[in-house]
Amino acid sequence: MNEHESVVDLRLDRAHSSRIYDYFLGGKTNFLADRMAAGSVLGVFPAALVAARINREFMHRTTRVLAASGMRQFLDIGTGIPTAPNLHDVAQGIAPDARVVYTDNDPIVLAHAAALLRSTPEGRTAYVQADVHDPAGILTAPQLLDTLDLGRPVALSLNALMHFVPDDGGDRAHEIVECLKAALPSGSTLAMSHATPDFSPEAMGKIIKIYGEAGTRLQFRSRAAFLRFFDGWELLEPGVTLSHQWRPDHPEDATHVTDAEAACYAGVARKP
Ligand SMILES: C[S@@+](CC[C@H](N)C(=O)[O-])C[C@H]1O[C@@H](n2cnc3c(N)ncnc32)[C@H](O)[C@@H]1O
């Protein structure tokens, strides 16, 4: 090892949210501790597999809609372990010149980032290893500034991320999102999904406990608290819905899952 190399401890002995989610999506980047925590979650909320899949599909649909509406710059925070199709695959499938910056705080996502960096020749992708608790650090990261022009509209996505940011008695999660929103120009968009206790509070309470025992703090939020993330921006139709109900590809997709199984609010808004 030379002086420029460093060892990152992936802490494979501890469950991590990105790897638990990877397990729910049927991925291979998860380890015993993650599978044990995932098993405990499935014990209290068997719909976690469905909830993860439809959350991912919300990202596919919003990215398609936004790319088709002319968005060419995407900033995806809390990206997750690469899972095909990734956001840039979807965006560049419609607009090959789309530019995408990915961010996550789990070093295992960095370790797999090569899959996120396979851009079209016309477009560009970049990865920033960062924590959403430091929005200013993300917005000034050299990889981001080399890839995105913050003077032009950006499609920001915070999918299944902000419930990992507890308020701790303050208003931290909303302050972070406001900081990100303020840095983007008119015409920018925010796509967001977020777990809620509104439909099965008991199961959601048990999930918070399971993640907490694994060292990950969660705060699920009500519809009113979720809506507040979009303050000052104009919600696109159909407004805030459950994740599977936001512009479903087929009408039956909106009804084959119950609200309690989806357990995640979703919405997209544009900055006036
Ligand atoms: C449930 S996954 C969602 C992945 C992807 N956004 C999606 O919706 O398919 C949540 C991701 O957020 C990341 N994450 C959690 N807390 C974070 C933080 N404070 N800063 C940045 N990323 C975070 C996790 O590492 C994980 O990859």
Present the secondary structure layout.
Blueprint: H1 17-24, H2 32-44, H3 48-68, E1 73-77, H4 87-94, E2 99-104, H5 107-111, E3 124-129, H6 135-139, H7 142-147, E4 155-159, H8 172-182, E5 189-195, H9 201-213, H10 223-228, E6 234-235, E7 241-242, H11 259-262, E8 264-270
Parallel strand pairs: 1-2, 1-4, 2-3, 4-5
Antiparallel strand pairs: 5-8, 6-8, 7-8
Bound molecules: S-adenosylmethionine (SAM).
Q: Quick gist of this model?
A:
The protein is of the alpha/beta class. The protein has a single domain, classed as Rossmann fold (3-Layer(aba) Sandwich), CATH 3.40.50.150.
**C-alpha end-to-end distance:** 51 Å
Order of helices and strands: HHHEHEHEHHEHEHHEEHE
Q: Round the mean pLDDT to the nearest integer and report it.
A: 94
Tell me the radius of gyration: 18 Å
CATH fold name? Rossmann fold
Give the DSSP E fraction (strand runs of 2 or more residues).
5-15%
- Indicate the low-confidence ranges by residue numbers: 1-5
What's the level 1 CATH class? Answer: Alpha Beta
CATH superfamily: Vaccinia Virus protein VP39
The hetero compounds bound to this protein are: S-adenosylmethionine
Number of strands: 8
Oligomer: single chain
**Basic shape:** globular
Biggest sheet character? 8 strands, mixed
Give the second-level CATH assignment, the architecture: 3-Layer(aba) Sandwich
Continuous helix count: 11
Question: What structural class results from the helix and strand content?
Answer: alpha/beta
Q: How many domains, as an integer?
A: 1
Amount of helix = 25-40%
